[in-house]
Write a structure and sequence with these properties.
By secondary structure, this protein is an alpha/beta fold. The protein folds into four domains: 60 residues, no CATH class; 162 residues, P-loop containing nucleotide triphosphate hydrolases (Rossmann fold); 55 residues, no CATH class; 72 residues, Ubiquitin-like (UB roll), CATH 3.10.20.30. It has twelve helices and 15 strands. Strands 1, 2, 3, 4, 5, 9 and 10 form a seven-stranded mixed sheet that branches. It has a five-stranded mixed sheet with strand order 12-11-15-13-14. The radius of gyration is 24 Å and the shape is globular.
Length: 381
């Protein structure tokens, strides 16, 4: 253990050792992790603390399952699903109503919405499903206020929009929401470690790229065994720490793109609170008023942008452009478009002609592996 840990760490460790409930242990571990300084000498300790937290979360989820707690699942429709997440009474229902065709109950008191409510938002000929998640409260990830069920609905989404009430201490709301999401294993606007772990039935542990991790082979193997991995191929593709390897091993973690929205811009204190919030947090804030519809077009554009979608229009030789477009992820190819239309077309396709930003001149002949861009028109042959 590093010798330069501050006294606060050992006080938090004492809380962990004497804790009687999993919730108390989790809070103590979080405090310990927060206190431990980040440097090479603490990487092993931080990885160990994260593993303990992952185990505790598994225990808590199993207990919740045994109690038969309610679970929420919203079937995905449209090109993607985006969760509207925020604390009670932050204006999510009004926002959903203003952005979509959803009929929702709107009232000026907390917990008006009691279950996830979907609606379809149209932007540039693309249908995106927005799902309002009932209000998240402090301690939701530890089981309070149907928290695990609500957060599981957010985990299932393709992206998340965090909604803050600008009129009522938005900075505190922000920190509470981030704490609950982090605790529940949802990482926002982060990329997962570029580490591939292929479990095997036998053969022990094979590590490729060991020179890229700041740890010895025995330390890596020890951490793998902590996670119950005894036979696997581990490929480390970028420089990383044991702590990052721990995150790659934690199967609970999901990574989602997110946009931060400050709502109720029309209220008196909101602009002053917005300026303070912008000074104190690093995330960009999209300030809107769901009530007056101020800045909602920008919000639609930002939601579409964070999902990394592209619109591709198709046409037959000599025919007109078909609408609506085919919607794919960035990086999609001509072959991906053909597969969406029909598997036989994908098999028999010889080439395509493309108009748009991905080609040098209109109607350019391309192969099936040509990468498309937003707004391209594709003619399959």
């Amino acid at each position: 253990m590093p010798a330069n840990l501050p006294p606060e760490y050992f006080r938090a460790e004492e809380k962990y050792l004497t804790a009687r409930s999993t919730e108390e242990k989790m809070k103590a571990l979080e405090e310990m992790l927060r206190i431990v300084p980040k440097h090479k000498g603490t990487e092993n300790l931080r990885a160990l603390l994260k593993r303990r937290m992952a185990k505790l979360k598994e225990e808590m989820e199993k207990k919740a399952g045994k109690k038969g707690g309610e679970r929420f699942y919203v079937k995905k429709e449209g090109a993607a699903q985006v969760a509207l997440l925020g604390m009670p009474n932050c204006g999510k229902s009004t926002l959903l109503s203003s952005l979509t065709n959803a009929r929702v109950e709107i009232a000026n008191y907390p917990f008006t919405t009691l279950k996830p409510t979907p609606g379809m938002m149209e932007f540039n000929e693309v249908q995106i499903q927005l799902v309002e998640i009932p209000g998240i409260i402090r301690g939701a990830s530890l089981g309070k206020g149907m928290g695990p069920a609500l957060l599981s609905a957010a985990r299932n989404s393709d992206g998340i929009t965090l909604v803050l009430d600008l009129s009522n201490d938005p900075e505190e709301q922000y920190h509470i929401l981030m704490e609950e999401l982090n605790r529940s294993g949802i990482r926002l606007n982060e990329n997962p470690p570029n580490i591939k772990i292929e479990r095997r039935g036998s053969g022990g542990i094979e590590i490729r790229g060991l020179n890229k991790i700041r740890a010895t082979e025995s330390e890596v193997i020890s951490l793998l065994r902590e996670y119950g991995v005894y036979n696997a191929l581990v490929v480390i593709n970028e420089k990383c720490s044991l702590e990052e390897l721990s995150e790659a091993l934690d199967e609970r973690l999901v990574y989602r793109r997110c946009r931060l929205v400050g709502n109720k811009l029309d209220l008196p204190e909101s602009k002053r609170n917005l300026r303070k919030l912008e000074r104190n947090i690093k995330d960009e804030i999209i300030a809107v008023s769901a009530k007056t519809k101020e800045n909602l077009e920008r919000l639609k554009r930002e939601i579409f942008g964070m999902l990394n979608l592209i619109r591709v229009y198709t046409k037959t030789p000599g025919g007109k452009i078909r609408r609506p477009p085919v919607v794919l992820r960035k990086g999609a190819t001509v072959e991906d478009v053909a597969k969406l239309i029909h598997s036989e077309i994908a098999r028999n396709m010889r080439f395509a002609r493309v108009w748009g930003n991905s080609v040098k001149y209109p109607g350019q002949h391309v192969g099936r592996d040509h990468v498309l861009m937003d707004g391209d028109v594709v003619e399959l042959h």
